[in-house]
Specification:
The protein has 725 residues and is of the alpha/beta class. Among the domains are: 115 residues, Helicase, Ruva Protein, domain 3, CATH 1.10.8.60; 141 residues, no CATH class; 160 residues, Ribosomal Protein S5, domain 2, CATH 3.30.230.10. It has 25 helices and 29 strands. The strands form ten sheets. It has a six-stranded mixed β-sheet with strand order 23-24-22-21-26-29. A five-stranded parallel β-sheet has the order 8-13-16-1-17. Strand 21 and strand 22 form a beta hairpin.
Length: 725
């Protein structure tokens, strides 16, 4: 049933006096998500259910505040949870290339790091004192004296045997030599050569015998020296073990509840004993340098490398957080998400160790929540694959991307994986969800919960109250002027217009926030303490002005007659249809002349736009539906003898959509019946095969577009637009 609509019927009106406020300053801070009951229900389910794969994909168009809303929701949820544990990497003394991961309660990681630092400092202080003590010196001297005594005893024995065989032992730079003697005197070379052959042969036999015995003695001496070194080393180890064991015992008691730490401390105790020399008086090592590296530099490098073995790398420190972590990862590169292993240049070569392992946002969000834009992570495909791998394995393996891709041939660190337990929230437009669900087989298994954010909410008391709360909170957060009740009512009306429904409000709070900010600017320009309705209108008008250059040019061409549009009189087979043009974030309505010509024939209805490939598929579908209606209505019992031509006049850039199918029907019927149509009336609406007019979009812009043309060409009082009921 048709009825005439007055201008007041075309928009939702809000009475400022019924809002119950003088300004938004009267309202309290808003908490929670506005008008998204469906999404909240899905979020609560996905975040609270336990089990693999129950991560959440939040779907919704841009500009509705998904990220901000989710962050607020998660922070409130996480505030009631326990802080997660710290994670540390320590040296693996069995394999330096596989550092061990240790978990400790929140705040204990940095405490353990400080304890280990103090332990090593104490060892550095205490060990040199012991090794410089009289007791140690006495025990070491005792070992060396025993060695010396045995060496002298063996030397005397071999010297005596040599004399008995007619030789003296003589030390030279080349070693110990046997010099023949006769009657107690050493023989010169000439004297030796003057001997008979028998005497020479006798001396050579004796010399060979003594040399064999000397070799045996030298072996015994070297064995004694090795034993002395081993005894000295054992002494050093025993002393080190006693000192370090006493110092570590306190830490072992402190961390007795943490088996991994206790085992690590045992490994430290054993390892320090292997590097006793590093902790001794540095004066003993001052002479060990050589080659191209100065002794003191070589010594310092060796010392630093050794001491680094006992550091604790706290990669996740949760000492300062309350509740579970909520990480918003806005740049999900591989390194930012997974972590990295840094390197440094030493003596012209790159080197690394466990102290250079850095955690990524997944590790920081462990036992908590992480929010990632699906568009951002898909731009970093290695990150997306790494995220899926971590979720499937329930562990985080920090490794270099080059190694993962097989580009690295040198040996690198492969830290022990960290067990992963967190909820991942991906945020993006619905198209990403549907594409991934269809083409990525892992996606449905890893993101089993979809939370849809709506662009509209019902106009009801709670939602209106929440809308006002958003405005108040936004003004406080952004340090903007508050809105008086008239401005608030005007913003509500615009919110209803954005929703294109008089019973709903838009939830595109990003765009609404922009309007508030721009109105705040104009309020400042006008010297207002509060934002008034005029400031809201000014912000909306200026936004249109910045974007409507093309619209103005089109109106100028219509006004000048370049584009032919009649707004008065009657024409047969001609009607004013309405279309909507979208230019970036600006949408406006434009009237178009639609004409139809008819003649007897069998061609049916020919869509000229389609024939020249300027008509889109939806428009072509609309014309076919129109043809179906005419066939059903007028040729149900006999063939239709009709050849009709439909066209959008002066259209050169393509036509899409079915909202002109009603206007096209009127043009054909007018041409068939020779009944003229009023050009002061424009038509929009979609037709079905039963002849019913269906709803269309952009109705506000279409009405305004035709009104602007009528206004430019002269208002007559009988101009209007037919829209679906």
């Amino acid at each position: 049933m048709s009825r005439e609509l007055a201008p007041k019927d075309l928009h939702q009106h809000f009475d400022p006096e019924k809002l119950g406020i003088k300004s938004t300053e009267d309202l309290n801070h808003l908490k929670g998500i506005i008008g998204q009951e469906r999404a909240i229900r899905a979020l609560k389910f996905g975040l609270n259910i336990k089990g693999p794969g129950y991560n959440v994909f939040v779907a919704g168009p841009p500009g509705i505040g998904k990220m901000t809303s989710i962050q607020t929701f998660l922070e409130e949820l996480a505030s009631g949870e326990e802080p997660p544990c710290d994670w540390c990497y320590v040296n693996n003394f069995q394999d330096n290339y596989i550092p061990n991961a240790i978990s400790l309660p929140a705040g204990k990681g940095s405490e353990f790091k400080a304890d280990m630092k103090n332990l090593i400092e104490k060892i550095q202080q205490e060990l040199p004192k012991i090794f410089e003590s009289d007791e140690y010196s006495s025990r070491r001297t005792e070992i060396l004296d025993e060695l010396k005594e045995e060496q002298e005893k063996l030397s005397q024995e071999i010297s005596q045997k040599a004399e008995e065989e007619g030789f003296n032992l003589q030390s030279t730079p080349m070693g110990v030599m046997l010099v023949p003697i006769k009657d107690g005197e050493q023989l010169s070379e000439a004297e030796f050569q003057s001997m008979s052959a028998e005497e020479k042969e006798e001396y050579k036999k004796k010399q060979q015998k003594i040399q064999n015995e000397m070799k045996s003695v030298m072996k015994r001496i070297r064995k004694l020296e090795r034993e002395a070194r081993e005894r000295t080393k054992d002494l050093d180890k025993q002393i080190t073990l006693n000192v370090v064991g006493g110092l570590i015992e306190d830490l072992t008691d402190k961390y007795a509840d943490f088996d991994e730490v206790v085992q690590y401390l045992e490994d430290v105790k054993s390892d320090v004993c292997e590097y006793t020399d590093i902790f001794k008086n540095q004066g003993e090592q001052a002479q060990q340098g050589g080659g191209l590296i100065p002794a003191n530099m070589q010594q310092q490098m060796q010392k630093e490398m050794t001491l680094n073995r006992y550091q604790v790398n706290v990669v996740i420190d949760n000492s300062n957080i309350e509740g579970a972590p909520v990480i918003m990862e806005f740049n999900p590169t591989y390194n930012n998400l997974i972590g990295r292993i840094e390197k440094e240049m030493q003596m012209g070569a790159l080197s690394t160790d466990f102290t250079m392992i850095k955690a990524g946002s997944l590790a920081k969000a462990n036992d908590g929540y992480i929010v990632i834009s699906i568009e951002d992570i898909l731009k970093n495909f290695a990150s997306y694959e790494a995220l899926k791998r971590a979720l499937k394995s329930n562990e985080l393996q920090i490794e270099e991307l080059t190694e993962r891709l097989g580009f690295m041939t040198t040996k690198s660190l492969r830290p022990e994986p960290i067990p992963l337990k967190l909820k991942v929230v991906l945020v993006g437009e619905p198209i990403y969800y549907y594409l991934l669900f269809q083409f990525d087989h892992d996606f449905p298994e890893l993101f089993k919960v979809k939370a849809d954010f709506d662009t509209q909410m019902e106009i009801e008391d709670k939602n209106v109250k929440d809308f006002l709360g958003f405005v108040s909170t936004y003004c406080r957060k952004e340090n903007l002027k508050h809105l008086d009740n008239n401005a608030t009512a005007r913003l509500l009306e615009h919110g209803s217009r954005m929703a294109e429904d008089q019973k709903k409000l838009s939830t595109k709070f990003g765009l609404l926030g922009d309007i508030i900010r721009e109105a705040n600017f104009w309020a400042g320009e006008n010297g207002n303490d509060l934002i008034h309705a005029d400031d809201i209108d000014k912000a909306l008008d200026e936004k249109i002005f910045r974007s409507n250059l093309i619209q103005k040019r089109i109106h100028e061409m219509i006004e000048r007659g370049t584009i032919l549009i009649d707004t008065e009189g009657e024409r047969t087979g001609q009607v004013n249809g309405l279309s909507v043009l979208m230019l970036g974030d600006y949408m406006f309505g434009k009237p178009s002349r639609i004409t139809a010509t008819v003649a007897p024939g069998r061609d049916g209805i020919l869509d000229i736009e389609r024939e020249v490939k300027l008509g889109g598929p939806v428009h072509s579908k609309g014309v076919m539906i129109l043809s179906g209606y005419i066939t059903r209505k007028y040729a149900d019992n006999k063939p239709l003898s009709l050849s009709a031509r439909l066209v959008f006049e002066q259209s050169y850039q393509g036509v899409e959509g079915d909202s002109a199918s009603a206007a096209e029907l009127f043009a054909i019927l007018s041409a068939l019946s020779d009944v003229p149509l009023k050009q002061s009336i424009s038509v929009t609406g979609s037709l079905n095969q039963n002849g019913e007019i269906q709803a269309i979009g952009g109705v506000n812009q279409k009405i305004e577009g035709f009104f602007e043309v009528c206004k430019a060409k002269g208002l007559t009082g009988d101009q209007g637009v037919i829209i679906p009921a």
